[in-house]
Amino acid sequence: MTMQFTKAHATGNDFVMIADPAGGITLSPERVAQLCDRHLGVGADGLIRAVPAHAFDEGRDALEAVGLTCTEQAPLWFMDYRNGDGSIAEMCGNGVRAFAHFLLSNGYAELEDGGSLPVLTRGGLKTVQKVPEGYAIGMGIWSFIDPEMAAERASDSLVQAAGLEDPRPALSISMGNPHTVVALPDTASLQRLDLHQAPKVEPVPPHGTNVEFVVPAEPLVETGVGRVSMRVHERGVGETLSCGTGACAAAAAVRVWAAGDGVDTWKVGVPGGEVTVRFRARPDGAEEVELAGPAELVYTGTMH
Ligand SMILES: N[C@@H](CCC[C@H](N)C(=O)O)C(=O)O
To answer: Where are the active-site residues found (predicted)?
Structure first.
């Protein structure tokens, strides 16, 4: 069966995008892995199927979970994200930016300046706004994977990776999907890392993890903005040029380690560019996270 696709990227994190307005496309993990293979397929870190939530079982369950309804006339689009190895993930922050850009550019959705586009994901309802740097995503709240960390605010695991002399302490954070953040002392040690093999995390969070290595800038905060550099090894993918949920987790961890210095805006430099992460405290003490950055459509083709 032939199928139209679009290749998109958001700070170098690249995706095969497929529109499925009728909800009739089934993709096995093997088919996804083949399409994402950089030699045998289109090549991408992940695949995203855009499907109206009311058009398939998982989407209808997700709609019910957030207490919303949608129809053919007024669809609420579900981001069916798969990792490059064919596995399913709860959320993809860069993916939501690429997804919104794909929907808007192809006339599947509309978004006026100042307006907000809702997007349903396995990690819940997200919102998208147009901003000067591209799109800003309302990501929901972040949380510690190990609840004891809420009091200790230090490290819950050790990470070893090729290029590191010794295992280093790390903190695991959920952005809907799992992340383990490791601080390194300087840019040279970040560059020395060999992320061809998955880093070893001990103990590994229950559903596996994405691992972010971060180097806080010197000074960490300038004119009220915190800055970190990051490289990432993604669960189900390998090293990628950027990870949006990872950038949010990295900023949250550095903010925790920097002991409540009240910095709410963070610039996270990744090999594929830069994203901005903002935190906003809620009355119940939890913190809402916003992720902003660019998204681009690269080309459209037909696959066989
Ligand atoms: N690159 C994504 C995250 C994709 C999912 C991740 N590999 C996982 O398995 O959780 C992002 O931009 O957030």
So the answer is: 92 (proton donor), 92, 243 (proton acceptor)
The widest CA-to-CA distance across the chain, in whole angstroms, is 58
User: Do 13 and 137 sit in the same domain of this protein?
Assistant: yes
**What is the per-residue pLDDT across 49-91, written as a single tens digit (0 to 9) for each?**
999 999 999 999 999 999 998 888 889 999 999 999 999 999 9
Question: How far is Cα 215 from Cα 232, in angstroms, rounded to an integer?
Answer: 12
Spatial contact of 109 and 140, defined as CB atoms under 8 Å apart:
no
**ipTM value greater than 0.95:** yes
Indicate the pTM of the whole model: 0.97
Cα of 260 to ligand 1 centre, how many Å? 27
Q: Is 36 a catalytic residue?
A: no
Pocket of ligand 1 (CB under 6 A): 13, 83, 89, 92-95, 177, 210, 234-237, 240, 243-246
For residue 112, say whether it is annotated as part of any ligand binding site.
no
Q: Is 243 part of the annotated catalytic residue set?
A: yes
Count of structural domains, the chain: 2
Domain span including residue 220: 143-286
Could you report the per-residue pLDDT of 207-228, keeping only the tens digit for each?
999 999 999 998 898 999 999 9
